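User: Design a sequence. Structure:
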C-alpha cells in the first residue's frame, strides 16, 4: 500500500557530452530511457514531485573530499562537476525544505572514487555522494550521516573516504567480491582504528533475489540504522542488482527496489550503477521515485516479471541470515573496539589501488594519527604515474590539538617536482598545496 504523499525532488542529468566510449555500459542512454519513462508516466504533472536543474560543483567542493593528482582542474570534465553539482542540488532542496526528499538521477557515477584520485576506476573519477555529504556538513552543520550503498558492486571508494569517521555509518549491500569487481567489501573490512564497526559490508551470493535483500534489510540494515540514529540517510541507489543487468549476477526486480526504498526511507538518493538500459532502469528508477513520493508502486513491473523466477534456495537464506547476525554483532561491539584501538598512537596501512579503465597501479600508505578525544588526522602518501602526493587530511570532527598537530606537520614537510604536499583541512575548509 502507498504511504502518505511526500514532496520529492528530482535532478536529472544524462551527461550527453561524456562517455568512456560510445558502446560502454556507462553511457548517456542509461538515463535517456529513464527520462522517457518518467515523462510517459506523467511524473512531470504529479503535484508532489518537483524537477530541479543540476548545478556545477566548484573545484573547492571536490578538493574538500579528494586529493586529485595532479589537480581536480586537470582531471575532471564539466560533466563530472555537473554530476556532483546535481547531487549537491538535491541535498540543498532537502536541507532548505523545498522538498522532503530528493533523488539525483545523474551520471557519471562516483562510488569507486577513493580519497586519492589519479584517474578513472570503475567508471568513476570523483565520489559524488562523498562530495555531497561534506557539502552538507560544511553548509548545514549536520554531523551524523548514514550512507547505504545498494549498488551491486562494493562501494569501495565511499568506504575508503569515510573509513575512519565514526560520525559516518557506511553500509554496503553488494554481490560477493569474490565474484565481481572490485573484489572487496567483506565483513572484516569494518572501519579504521577510530571507527571500528562503522563500516558494515554485506556481501551477498550471486543470484540473490528479493527474499535475500528483504532479509538483509530487516535483520541487519534497519536494526543498525536504528541504533546509529543518523540525522540524515543517503542511499547510493545503484540498480545493477537487477536480473537483466549485463555485467552482474543478481536476481533483484523493480518491485524489490521500490520495497527496499520504502523500508529504508532515505532523505536523499543518488544514482550509481545500473546498465540494463531498456530492461531495468526505466522500471527501477520509476519504482524508487514513486516509493520516495509515497505513491502506488504496485503496477511497476517489467514486462517479463514472474515472481516464480525469484525464489531462493534454503541454503542461501541460511547463509544470508548468518551474515546479518554477524554484521549486527560487529556493530554492537564498536565502542569497545574503538576504546582499545585509540591507545595505539599511530596505525599505518598500505594498499595497492588499481585503475582499471587505463590500467595502472597506485601504491598508497596511510598513517592514522589517533586521539582519545576525536578521530585524529590522517597522513597519506600515494604514488603512481611518476607522481606522488603527500597529504595531511584533517576531518571535520578533529579536536583542536589534532588540528594544530596536522597543520604543524604540513608546514614542516616539503615536496619536489614529482611530489606535491597537501593540507586538506575540513575544519577551516582549506585546501593548501606546496
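Assistant: Done.
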Amino acid at each position: 500500500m502507498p504511504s502518505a504523499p511526500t514532496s520529492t525532488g528530482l535532478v536529472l542529468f544524462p551527461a550527453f557530452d561524456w562517455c568512456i566510449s560510445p558502446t560502454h555500459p556507462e553511457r548517456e542512454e542509461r538515463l535517456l530511457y529513464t527520462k522517457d519513462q518518467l515523462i510517459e508516466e506523467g511524473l512531470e504533472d504529479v503535484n508532489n514531485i518537483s524537477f530541479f536543474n543540476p548545478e556545477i560543483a566548484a573545484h573547492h567542493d571536490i578538493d574538500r573530499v579528494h586529493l586529485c593528482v595532479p589537480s581536480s582542474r586537470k582531471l575532471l570534465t564539466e560533466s563530472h562537476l555537473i554530476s556532483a553539482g546535481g547531487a549537491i542540488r538535491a541535498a540543498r532542496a532537502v536541507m532548505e525544505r523545498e522538498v522532503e526528499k530528493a533523488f539525483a538521477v545523474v551520471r557519471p557515477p562516483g562510488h569507486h572514487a577513493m580519497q586519492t584520485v589519479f584517474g578513472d576506476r570503475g567508471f568513476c573519477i570523483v565520489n559524488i555522494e562523498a562530495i555531497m555529504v561534506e557539502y552538507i556538513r560544511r553548509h548545514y552543520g549536520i554531523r551524523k550521516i548514514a550512507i547505504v550503498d545498494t549498488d551491486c558492486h562494493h562501494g569501495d571508494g565511499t568506504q575508503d573516504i569515510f573509513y575512519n569517521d565514526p560520525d559516518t555509518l557506511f553500509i554496503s549491500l553488494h554481490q560477493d567480491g569474490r565474484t565481481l569487481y572490485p573484489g572487496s567489501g567483506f565483513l572484516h573490512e569494518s572501519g579504521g582504528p577510530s571507527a571500528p564497526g562503522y563500516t558494515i559490508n554485506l556481501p551477498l551470493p550471486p543470484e540473490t533475489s528479493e527474499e535475500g535483500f528483504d532479509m538483509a534489510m530487516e535483520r541487519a540494515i534497519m536494526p543498525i540504522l536504528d541504533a546509529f540514529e543518523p540525522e540524515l540517510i543517503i542511499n547510493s541507489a545503484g540498480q545493477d542488482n537487477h536480473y537483466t543487468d549485463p555485467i552482474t549476477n543478481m536476481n533483484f526486480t523493480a518491485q524489490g527496489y521500490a520495497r527496499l526504498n520504502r523500508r529504508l526511507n532515505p532523505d536523499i538518493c543518488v544514482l550509481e550503477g545500473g546498465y540494463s538500459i531498456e530492461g531495468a532502469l526505466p522500471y527501477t528508477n520509476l519504482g524508487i521515485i514513486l516509493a520516495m513520493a509515497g505513491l502506488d508502486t504496485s503496477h511497476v513491473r517489467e514486462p517479463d516479471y514472474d515472481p516464480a523466477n525469484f525464489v531462493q534456495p534454503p541454503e542461501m537464506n541460511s547463509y544470508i541470515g548468518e551474515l546479518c547476525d554477524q554484521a549486527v554483532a560487529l556493530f554492537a561491539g564498536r565502542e569497545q573496539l574503538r576504546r582499545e584501538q585509540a591507545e595505539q598512537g599511530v596505525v599505518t596501512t598500505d594498499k595497492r589501488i588499481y585503475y582499471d579503465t587505463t590500467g595502472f597501479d597506485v601504491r598508497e600508505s596511510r598513517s592514522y594519527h589517533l586521539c582519545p578525544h576525536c578521530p585524529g588526522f590522517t597522513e597519506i602518501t600515494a604514488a603512481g604515474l611518476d607522481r606522488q602526493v603527500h597529504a595531511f587530511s584533517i576531518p571535520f570532527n578533529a579536536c583542536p590539538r589534532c588540528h594544530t598537530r596536522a597543520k604543524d606537520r604540513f608546514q614542516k614537510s616539503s615536496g619536489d617536482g614529482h611530489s606535491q604536499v597537501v593540507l586538506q583541512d575540513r575544519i577551516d575548509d582549506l585546501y593548501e598545496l606546496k
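The chain has a mean pLDDT of 93. Residues 138 and 429 are 8 Å apart (CA to CA).
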